[in-house]
Amino acid sequence: MRTVLPKGPGDELDIQSIADTTTRLTASPDLPAPGTQRTAAAGWESDATAGRAQPDDRRRARHVPSVDPLPAAHVGPDRVTAEIVLQLFDGAPASIAANVIIALICVFAERHFVPMFQLAGWLLPFLALTAGRAWLVRAYRRAPVDGALDCRVWLRHYRTGMVGSGMMWGLAGVLLFPATDVLHQMMLTAILLGVSAAVVVSSAVDAFGASVYAAAVILPFCARMFVREGDLYTSLGMLGVVYLGFIGAVIRELARRALENLTLRLDAVRSEEALTVSTDQYRLLLDHLPVGVLHYDGGCRVTYCSERLAQILHTSRERLVGLDLGQVDDGAIVPLLRRMLRDGNSVTFEGYHNATLGPLCGWIRLNATPSRNARGGIVGGIAIVEDVTESHANQEEILRLGLFDSLTGLPNRRWLLDRLRQVVVACERTAQFAALLYIDLDNFKTINDTRGYEVGDELLKQVAARLVGSVRSSDSVVRLGGDEFLVLLENLRGSKVQASANAGAVGETMRATLNEVFHLDAHDYYCTPSIGIYLFGDQPAGEDEVLKRADAAMYQAKEAGRNTMRFFDPRSQHLIAEQSALEVDLRAAIRDRQFVLHYQPVVDRGRKVAGAEALVRWNHPARGLVQPAAFIGAAETSGLIVPLGRWVLEAACQQLARWARQPHLAGLSLAVNVSALQVRQADFVDDVMAIVEQCGADPHRLKLELTESLFVDDVDGTSAKMNALSSCGIGFSLDDFGTGYSSLSHLKRLPLDLLKIDRSFVSHLESDASDASICAATIGLAHNLGVKVVAEGVETAGQCAFLSTQHDCDYMQGYFFSEPLPLDAFESYMGQHQD
After folding, report:
1. In whole angstroms, what is the distance from residue 413 CA to residue 455 CA?
2. For 554-622, what is the HEC assignment?
3. Which residue among 229, 454, 765, 833 is buried most deeply as judged by most CB within 10 Å?
4. What string of H, E and C letters represents the secondary structure of 666-714?
5. Per residue in 138-185, pLDDT tens?
6. What's the CA gap between 39 and 22, in Å, rounded?
7. pTM for this structure?
C-alpha cells in the first residue's frame, strides 16, 4: 500500500491509497498497537522485548543512522556508507592480529639475513601503526556516531590506517629482502602476496581502500625486483604487476557483489520498518492532509471523517460521524455518492457547496471511489474533499489577466480578437460600418532606451489614458503590446463616406491629443503617433484580415513621414505581399549562400589600381543576377542585413587572404560596406576581429565603409567601436559624404582614413558649377584634416582630369575605369593593368 502526500490544494492525490487506509481504520481492529515493532524474523514484539539486544546489536544501532519508514527503493548512499564502515571495523581486530603475527614471523625468519637495525627500524614503526589501528577500532566501538557525516569520517580514518599498514608492508619488501638467500626471498615474497590477498577477504567491501592497500604492498616490491640484476628478479617484478592487476579486478568484483548484497539487505530492513506504521500514525496522516477525507458505509452513513474535513465544512467531527447522507437535502453531491455505490465507478464533483454537509458556502472539489472488502464487494466509499474557493477566485483573476494588459489596464490582443469577431458578424447583419485604428508611437524606443523603462511605462499609461478620453464609451481601446495600440470604433452610422469621415475625425483627434507634451519624471517629452485606419462592414472580412489591413495602413503612415494618418490602400497589399515574399527568398538565399561578390577597381591619381570595393550580388536561381538596389532595402528592414553583411565581410576577408599569396595582388586593399544595423550590434568589434583572424586576412588591407546616418543616434558608441578596430589596423571610409548628416565635428573625432565623395556630385561636376565646387571643397577639407579622398561614379575623362589633375583627388572609381567585375574578370583586369 502506498500513500501520496500532496503539497497543497490541487496536488494529485492517491485516492485508492487513502481509501485503503480509511477502510483499515474503520474495519480492521487487528493492527498492532503503538509502541510495537516488526522483527526481522517476522512477528510483532514489544519495545521491552526488542530492547534486549546483544552488545553487537547495540553497537550496530549506534553506528547505523536510523531512517524513516519509506519505500525500500529510497535507500541512500549514507546508509550504505554506514554499513560499510560497520563491516570494516567488525573485521579489523582479526586483520590486525594476523598482521602482527605475520610481521613477527617475518622478522624472526629474516634475523640472520637482514641487519638488526633494519629489522628494528621496520618492526617498531609497524607495531606502533598497528597499535594505532587497534586504538581506532576501540574508539569506534565506544564513541556514539551521529549521522552520515561521522560515518564518512570513520571511513577516512580506517582507510588511513589500512593504507599506512600497506605502506609498511611495501617497505618490508625493500628493507627486509635478503640479498642472496633465495629461499628467504621466496618466503618474503609469499608473505607479501599473502598479506595483499588477505585484504580481499577482510576489506573488499571498500574497493578503494583495499585497492590502495594492495598497491602499497606490491608496488615497492616490484620496483625492488626491477632494479636488481637477473632474469629471476625481473620475472618476479613482472609477476607482481600482473598479480596486482588480478587482485584489483577481484577486489572490484567482490566489492560490487558485497554492495549489491548490502543494498538488498538494507532494502529488506527498510521494508520491515515501513510495516511498523501504526493505527495512530495513519490517523495522524489523514488528519494532517490538506484535504478532507470522508468514509461512509453501504447505507451512506458516515463512519469516519478527518479533522481537516470538519474544518473545510466549518463544522465538527462529532456532527459528521454517524450522519446519514441520505437524509441531507442535497441534489448534487449525495446522488453522485449513491451512484458510485451502485455502479462501482469513481465519481468527481466540482461546484458550489451551499451549506448542505456543513455551514460552508463556497466552491469545493470532491473525488469519491468505492471501498471494497477482501472479496471485491463494495462496502462503502471514500471521498476526498478540497476547498477550492480561493483557487476558483484565482482562476477568475488569471482569466482577467489573460484578457487585460497589466500595465495600462486596457484589454489585450486576445480580448480584441474575440470582440472583433463579434463586431464583424454584427456589421454583416446590420449593414453598418466599423473601423479599426492601429496606432504606433514613433519615437517611443528612443525614450525607453535613453530614459529607462520606468519613464517608458509611465508614457504608455498616459498614452492609454489620452486614447480612452478621445473615444466614446461604446468604443474600445486596446494595447496590442509594446508601443502599439488599437481602437475599435463600432456603429459608424451613415454611408461609407460618412463613416470614413467619422473614423478620420476620431483619428485626427487622437493624433492631436498625442502630439501634446507629456510630463514625465519632471521632464517634458513629445511622442507622435502613426495611425492606420481600416473601415470594414461592406465586404466580408475575418478578424485576422481586419487586423492585418489596419497594420498595413499604419505602415503606410510610417512611410509617409510619421506623425500622420492613413486609410488602408488596397494597392499597398500587393506591395506588402511582394515584400514578404522577398524576405522569404532572402532568408533562403542567406541559408543557401546564393550571394557572390563583384569587385570594382579603385585607382590612384596615376590610374594605378590601389584596391577594390567588394559589391554584393544575388545569384537568384530564377531571376539570375540581382543588383543590390533590389534587395538591400528589404534586408535592412527585416534585419537580415546583419547575417548578409557578415557573409560579405567573411567572403571579402577570405579573398584578401588568397590575394596575399599572389605577389601581383598582395598590395591591394579591399573596401566592404557595413550597415548601421551591423555596427550597432553589441558584439560587432569581436565579430569583425574573429572573422579577420579566422580567414587569415591582413587587417591593414581591410577598409570598412560606413554611412553618415550611423552617427546620428550614438556617435560616442560608434566612435569607440571604430577606435577599437582601428587600433588593430582596420581602416574606415565615410561613404556618400555630403548626402546625409554631414558634420565636421565627426570628421575630427572619428578615426577615418578615407572620405568618399558621392556619385551624385561627381556625375554633374562638368555641367554644374555647384557640384564642381562641392567636390573641390570636399577634397580640400579632407586633405586639411589629414584624410584621403575617394571619388566614386567617375565615368568620363573630364571628370577624371578635374578630380586627379586639377584637385589632387587621391583615389577614384567608376565605369570610366571599370565596372564591378566577377572575381575571375577582376583578376584578369589586374593582370592587364598591373604595370
Report:
1. 24
2. HHHHHHCCCCCEEECCHHHHHHHHHHHHHHHHHHHHHHHCCEEEEEEEEEECCCCEEEEEEEEEEEECC
3. 765
4. CCCEEEEECCHHHHCCCCHHHHHHHHHHHHCCCHHHEEEEEEHHHHCCC
5. 888 887 655 555 788 888 888 888 888 888 888 888 888 887 777 877
6. 26
7. 0.44
